[in-house]
DNA sequence: CTGAAAGCGCTTACAG
DNA sequence: CTGAAAGCGCTTACAG
């Protein structure tokens, strides 16, 4: 143990200790053929004695690939992002790839800074959950051969692989479910309409209503910020109108949560279907009926697409929609009040 | 745009294009002084024209630090791990550090492989949520100057900074809460006792009972695997004995979840306090009373400790306990049945 | 089977 | 103000 604190032995040190050339050490470390058993033994002894461990960053600089990819999320701390991460990590691990993760916090500027920082590290590829809507800043990177796959939301200004949930189809299914249970006046509470997922879910709502031949009163549709105060206000407006809605479709988990809080003390609860599943949904009374996304499939598909590109797939950019699943647990099967 | 696909321009290319030396390009890229405005302008033009972006991996090889740290979790996909990640990422970002994350899946072997892979990349430091109980494999790394901070569970065979929840104190608070509400026969359902957090929480249970002068019947204590089947069996045993317990302390979120499922159809529900908070806990009827950990504080403290070490702090290894918080919502305030 | 030289893309240390 | 040389820790390409 001669290593001074903070100084690591290099192949050069090992070579000197074993009385061989650098290249011979490299051969032993990498299990390359062409080293006598005796020489290899001497080298291994020196490696153990010095506590040598190969510097992979140096190795990878020479090699050209970094064996790492980056995943840029909205917020690694939320359950949806973390489920995506796990799926991406598993696929990366199969390929011997390490994973950088980073959170944009919905800030387009931070998304850009992080993405470019990852590219500057020369990650082999990038999976991005977009925060902003202009991704032309990534064009030089993709042109230089760093593949980028967009996840959960579409990118702007760049033609690249995109993996999305079937937002419109899922919302349509959820609303159709409410219609099947006798509802005709159905409210929609959603996020800002400029957000792609939000617009798609609203489209699904309209489609379900149209498919059933039901008219839509525009006052039944509330889009805007998803903080509890706004959601609560929208909910009150929809349920206390002269002709109140008898059912609600809440278009994401934050909205569903706020609505549940508001409805907890509500008599004559409207039926409710939410987009996104929640942890204790089946333990509520009534159980919460949801349109669940499949984050594991989203993440895995994004990662596989990325590795396909790294493997040389040069076909046109793909756009893949992952199906959602309706889980009926009670709240979506409440009948409308008898008139 | 002369970049061929897959080939990135280097400082050498920029230098040639601008008709200057490599070093001058470096100066411009790094905003170092000592370049005339005109020269700098020529260099910048060449950078833009070629689409040059500095290779930070190469830079960092020369510099010695990688400006990255790694966080090794049990499973990035679970809410506790992801909350830790976010906290660590925020502190790392303040320092301009990128974050590798990886999941051991509770497998000691995988923990080791991942930790050493990160060390081989020469991350500046490592935060590890232990899966195994022998971490001597990290001794050469810490000796070589790579600081390691252990999080959520203690390490084995290595003297290093450790950040833990106050598991014993939290469990004691939860059980004392049940005692204050009139319970004397209180069941404990916990994980395998060889797991540190599990043993500590059991210790807290015993302490609360002893502090109140209450005897403990060993049949009230069930430790073992935390799959729903085992938990349900334990629960049935505890609540259907001749002298059943009137209250339960469930020692982690998986156990609490399984217990809630089992109790949903139960008349004369026992009071319940769970260790770990759950997302919809306050919307249940009764609301779920919990002892909540503070993953944000755990992660932030671990990351700060790591950066203290990187900043040169060479004081003895620290062991920091983060307080828990009792959140009363109803289930823990149910009285024992009148006799 | 073994090794000396060149190079991955940068920064450091020094000279003009 | 500018640059030529050496070096970070490895691998590649080639020679003996």
From TrEMBL, chains A, B:
Family matches, as InterPro entries: HTH_LacI (IPR000843), LacI/GalR-like_sensor (IPR046335), Lambda_DNA-bd_dom_sf (IPR010982), Peripla_BP_I (IPR028082)
Q: Which GO terms describe its molecular function?
A: DNA binding
SMART domains assigned to the protein according to its UniProt record, in alphabetical order: HTH_LACI
All residue ranges annotated as the HTH lacI-type domain in the record = 9-63
Q: Which domain of life is it from?
A: Bacteria
- Which Pfam families does this UniProt record tie to the protein? LacI (PF00356), Peripla_BP_3 (PF13377)
Q: Where are the transmembrane segments?
A: none
**Gene3D superfamilies linked:** 3.40.50.2300, lambda repressor-like DNA-binding domains
Question: Keyword set for this entry?
Answer: DNA-binding, Transcription, Transcription regulation
Name of the protein in question: LacI family DNA-binding transcriptional regulator
